[in-house]
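We include this case.
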Amino acid sequence: MLKTFSIGGVHPEGNKISAHQNIRQAELPKQAIILLGQHIGAPAKAIVKRGDEVLVGQKIAEAGGFVSAAIHSPVSGKVAKLDTTIDASGYRKPCIIIDVQGDEWVDTIDRTPDLVTETALDSKEIIDTIKEAGIVGMGGACFPTHVKLMPPPGNTAECLIINAVECEPYLTADHQLMLEHAQEILIGVKLLMKAIKVNKTYIGIENNKPDAIELMTKVASKYAGVEVVPLKIKYPQGGEKQLIDAIINRKVGSGKLPISTGAVVQNVATAFAVYQAVMKHKPLFERVVSVTGRSVAKPSNLWARFGTPLSQMIDECGGLPEDTGKVIAGGPMMGKALPTLEIPSAKGTSGILIMQEKESRRLEIQDCIRCGKCIEACPMGLEPYLIIAQAMKQEWDKVEKDSIMDCIECGSCQFTCPAQRPITDYCRLSKAKVGGILRARAAEARAASESSKK
């Protein structure tokens, strides 16, 4: 019997339209707009200035703190300016703009197709290399990978879990990456195992990817301690906490980190990036992006350099269809509707979904009928109907008490709501409000503590 997580979940239509489309290289932009905040944590700090000449793979921004990540140039050319640009959130964010001139790479990157299987680097050296390469979680959260590989005191890694689920509808980037680069991924897995000093890895793949399961199982058989785990199809199985529950049957407690279960979870594309960084000396400056939708002329999986305008990738796939209603960065469940197509791709850009007008239109909101479907669907065991009612009244103390910070914003509650209520929207708002309250409370406590010491 196939494994899956034990609480909640829904079954949206897969719509894997771009599945089995070979990954092809996207065209270089004429001007690359590289965001400095492509990850969770402090934005990176630019170390280049206007007029500087840069090469592909050259570091152009250093980590802005412990939880941060370096950024490397995805193109060669001249820095036009340091400025701000609109990102997927709709707000203006700091960026570096580079006028592209050719495609010259730093000479330390190994660009040959040769597979490199062995390294003399120890655990610390592998983590340092990953940090230097600017690698972050490629599944969407973009948490700096090197931080995740260094568990906080009192926590010890017992196993590595590779998230190859790709449960978000429409997206196929990870699936195709496994089909084309299974060997490199498995070497990346062994490097991650060495980094966190574990002897066991589970690679979770949903059962709608039988070809990937077969190939990854065949390749993994050559590596001791690596097991491919086929999973029942259920959204949001790609969530860290849900994947841990599904594979090793351990639950992450409220307010706890996944490492509290002994598991370190990394995305399959992150494992590939680790291989490239450690074995090929290639920092993270490009990724696979699914460009897809029911009306898209050429649904595709593209190798896209960061800083490429989303409009350019859409044009490469046949242009914007006439019946477009919304363009989503990511998938339909957790992605964000874009205010403009002139947004640059970044480390977390896994997909561009072009939704038809008829499927993107929200239906009229009705009164809650207390059916309980949102409770049944919530993979975190929350009561979404209650949270939205409290949020609408701005009762943030009650929202906090009802564990809103455990919400993973998966959209399962809203997906299953027969009254079409915007539950996920209010959950996101609530998390932002309560998060601000918690930060202010912590700051006050620190200030009071420092004052008492004087």
Observations:
- The two ends are 62 Å apart (CA to CA).
- Residues 423-453 form the longest helix (31 residues).
